[in-house]
Amino acid sequence: MSEPILTNWTSDVAANWGKAPLALQHRLHEHPLFSLEALEELIETYPRQHYALVHMGAQGSPKQSWREGDIANLSGKQVIDAIAKGRMWIHLFRVGQVDRRYARLLDDIFEEVDHNLGGYKTFTRLNGIIISSPKAQAYYHFDSAGQSLWQIMGKKRVYLYPTTPPYLTEESPEYVTMDANEVGIKYTRSYEKGATEFLLEPGTMMHWPLYTRHRVENLDCLNISMMTEYWTENIRRRLMVNPANGILRSKLGVRPRSTATSGAAFRAKAALRAGVRRSSSDERAEGKAADRV
Fold it and tell me: How far is residue 73 from each of residues 52, 54, 193, 216, measured CA to CA in Å?
């Protein structure tokens, strides 16, 4: 796109990027890659290992339950029509790796962010397209990478929660990075008192600070969104510190005193995490060898 993708970037946005929730305007809903025809064609050729088709629980239910399915021989139009009539979503994972056109768009987005922030180096960038039913929901969770949500079609409400206890505890990032279960964190209805609600419409995107708890509810309309995910050096280091702190807490009974991402304590924790990962890999390899005997 020759024009800027983000249309209302200001100095306040730059000052608060990664520090506070931000709702910005964009042009992606006008991009030909996100027309229904283009998405129907994309679905028809999408590799099975790179998508999830999920039937969700009823909106408003805190129960984190779903059933996975397969698009089988349905056309892209039939898949989208079925989603529009049901309580489902399809997530096309790693769309930039499957189709280079979406990879180039992803690069354009981050080059623009880097330019606007005067230097913001990112790596392992990913994007995924989510097509979801009227009144579908995403359960209360948080993510271990930097993330933004770009609304293309339909409307949804995003609920963001404070990054303080009881919403965000010392143990939460440790638990998620150790067990890779981002929706398994504690949630109660009482948390809604602290939630901040945002309405996303076509041409709106949201970016929030790392580890911000959130959940999403579609309004009564078909929704199409794109998620972008990325890493920075600080995020990478946080992912090294958190599981090390979890090991200290859960295995050794020691309460970690720091989440610093530099210095001697960080280097020691990075070494601890690396050692545990090597040990786990060795155990898995030994198990596979034993299975062959």
Answer: 15, 17, 45, 30
Instruction: Determine the pLDDT at residue 22.
Output: 97
Note the pLDDT of residue 59.
60
Predicted pLDDT at 183: 52
List, in order, residues 6 or more apart from 41 with CB less than 8 Å away.
76
Cα(191)–Cα(239) distance, integer angstroms: 26
Cβ pair 84, 220 in contact under 8 A:
no
SS3 53: strand
- C-alpha span between 240 and 270 (Å, rounded): 6
Q: What is the pLDDT of residue 282?
A: 45
**How far lies 161's CA from each of 36, 106, 146, 180, 205, in Å?**
33, 27, 16, 21, 17
Q: What's the angle, vertex CA 181, arms to CA 255 and CA 82, rounded to 5?
A: 160
Report mean pLDDT in 10-residue bins for the chain, 293 residues.
89 96 98 98 96 77 65 94 92 97 98 96 97 93 92 98 83 60 74 97 97 94 98 87 72 74 72 68 39 29
In 3D space, the residue among 28, 16, 218, 201 whose CA is nearest the CA of residue 108 turns out to be 28
- Strands 204-207 and 223-231, how do they pair? unpaired
Backbone angles phi, psi at 116, to 5 degrees: -65, -30
C-alpha span between 173 and 293 (Å, rounded)? 39
> What are the backbone angles phi and psi of residue 148, rounded to the nearest 5°?
-135, 150
Count CB-CB contacts under 10 A for residue 200: 23
